[in-house]
Amino acid sequence: MTQTSVSYNAEDIQVLEGLEAVRKRPGMYIGSTGPTGLHHLVYEVVDNAVDEAMAGHCTQIEVEILKDGACEVRDNGRGIPVGAHHQYEELTAAEVVLTVLHAGGKFGGEGYKVSGGLHGVGVSVVNALSSKVEVEIDREGKRHFMSFKDGGEADKKLTIIGDAPEKRTGTTVRFWPDIQIFKEGIDFRSTTLLERFQMMAFLNKGLEINFVDNRINGTNKKTSYKYDGGIKDFVQHVNASKDALFEKVGFFQDDDDEQEVEIAFQWNTGFNSDGIHSFANGISTTEGGMHEQGFRTALTRAANKYARDNGQLNKSDDGLQGEDIREGLTAIISVRLREPQFEGQTKSKLGNVSIKSLVEKATGEHLRDWLEENPAEAKLITQKAVQAARARIAARSARDATRRKSALDGAGLPGKLTDCSSKNPEESELYIVEGNSAGGSAKDARDPGTMAILPIRGKILNVERSRIDKMLNNTEVQALISAIGAGFGDEFDIEKIRYHKIVLLADADVDGSHIRTLLLTFLYRQMKELVLNGHVYIAQPPLFSTEVKKSKIYLKDEHARELFLKDNPKHKADFGRLKGLGEMNADELWDTTLDPEKRTLLKVTVEQASIADEVFSKLMGEDVDSRKTFIQTNAKDVRFLDI
């Protein structure tokens, strides 16, 4: 073996000073340098203001996208301290907060009892990843100003520039994201920001969050969120497109010395049993955790006791299971604690054992009282749970038939599944293909080593409107559950999935979009962890083809065709409309849609599960008016329309 001499001496050990580490490895601090990381900068700044609100010192936050694309965040909190810092005597506390990682009022002391940041890096990371930052602080009757450039380099030291208007206190941060870091673009998406701000307003009762985007046609349209009912309003919002079982929204809160909990709840007539949305210090815990466990345990115990005490369950009857009681339940669990411990694959699972005890105790006591004080609503809840239990028992045989028996020999897999030869889930892909003819084309075109094909016939059952017994009698649903191999609902086990990529492959037209939506509804409602852990993808087959210099060009949709014509204004050649996946030969399907070297796959992600819950209910539920309103409101964002 040839040996090479490589230097490894003291001078080879490098230390990244200050904010240089953030610019070197931005993904470690904000997740990515794509759109998600870009918007995370805004959340870091706004979270500081929300922390002031949680501490009782801020009632209003103003977020403004300036005409040049910068973001400005203003709050009426106490203002960042401006005195000399005890550890960095040459810097003020405000300068330390903007330039030193892990600096802030959240690491001991009496600045904050609880805070929302995950790692405490906050606004210093925003400074590191911006080309320019300006900060104004109104405190102690004076307005202070400082600015930075080129990723955190001091431009103007903190100085007093005048009196604070009308004895105002608070902080204003303006920042311009650095295009050298965010190479995919530095344009903020208003809808993404508004979804987050609305959730923050729900979780902080009485906090007003205003948003203005000055880029839109020069207008200054303001969107405001303020909810005096807090998470009670949140529950009503999520249930707005559903048929509520009763009008009342239950609510209770409790606390001890180090932590506190608020819970709001209401049942609807739907069949979804996964309507619990939990938060810790304002952070969405999409993977649940100890607070959810405490609530579920106490809910099951309290509902069973009430049903037995009031004659809806006999002594000889089996008890109600958790999924029976949670059918149709929408609940918001919001906890605040001094030292949250986040774990799980996406760091969105709360691990503090102490919060489980508080939530379980509070739910047991307060829910028992609520059921006793609201007998009409309690009766509707237990009746619905008993009906759900009967449906669950009736569906038991169908469930057993769909449960995967063996991953080694393929026993129990659907007959129409053409499996791949690989037994390694990490490299295996399942293509769920619309129609048998398209399935045949995909089978011929695929890489048999890693690509499995499952054709489904037509439009599968809309599980948003179906109970489990009806769902399990559907042949296509049975095939999906068997092929994926990890169960469904409460029994779904992400560790048992047979493929790490579940790819939805449907025609690039309206019918194909409908089928994708039905499939996504099923996967989100019955196998949510697949979506949360990034295992679900959407293939992008082309709708048009044309020729350029005897080379065939494929275009995904009308939007792609318009862009092509914009870049090629002299092109008069014909655009052939592809008839569908089943009409494409194997080579064409491989080249355009399946080839890993050329294909485009869209990963399905969920940043806010409560928003996804609301959208699925609007699109797939019974409320026609809310669906119509949703379509009208979002029509401007449609990129593809089949006419």
Write the layout of secondary structure elements.
Blueprint: H1 20-24, H2 27-30, H3 35-54, E1 60-65, E2 71-75, H4 93-99, H5 122-128, E3 130-139, E4 142-149, E5 153-163, E6 170-177, H6 190-203, E7 208-213, E8 222-225, H7 231-238, E9 250-255, E10 259-267, E11 276-280, E12 283-284, H8 290-309, H9 322-326, E13 329-337, E14 342-343, E15 349-350, H10 353-373, H11 375-394, H12 396-402, E16 429-434, H13 436-445, E17 451-456, H14 468-472, H15 475-484, E18 501-505, H16 510-526, H17 528-532, E19 536-539, E20 544-548, E21 551-555, H18 558-567, E22 576-577, H19 586-594, E23 601-603, H20 609-620, H21 624-634
Parallel strand pairs: 1-7, 11-13, 16-17, 16-18, 18-19
Antiparallel strand pairs: 1-2, 2-6, 3-4, 3-6, 4-5, 7-8, 9-10, 10-13, 11-12, 14-15, 19-23, 20-21, 20-22
Helix pairs in contact: 3-5, 3-6, 8-10, 8-11, 13-19, 20-21
Please, could you describe this protein's structure?
The structure is a single chain. With 643 residues, the protein is an alpha+beta fold. The protein folds into three domains: 20-225, Histidine kinase-like ATPase, C-terminal domain (Heat Shock Protein 90); 231-394, Ribosomal Protein S5, domain 2 (2-Layer Sandwich), CATH 3.30.230.10; 405-541 and 602-606, Rossmann fold, CATH 3.40.50. β16, α13 and β17 (451-456) form a beta-alpha-beta unit. α3 runs antiparallel to α5, α8 (290-309) packs parallel to α10 (353-373) and α8 (290-309) packs across α11.
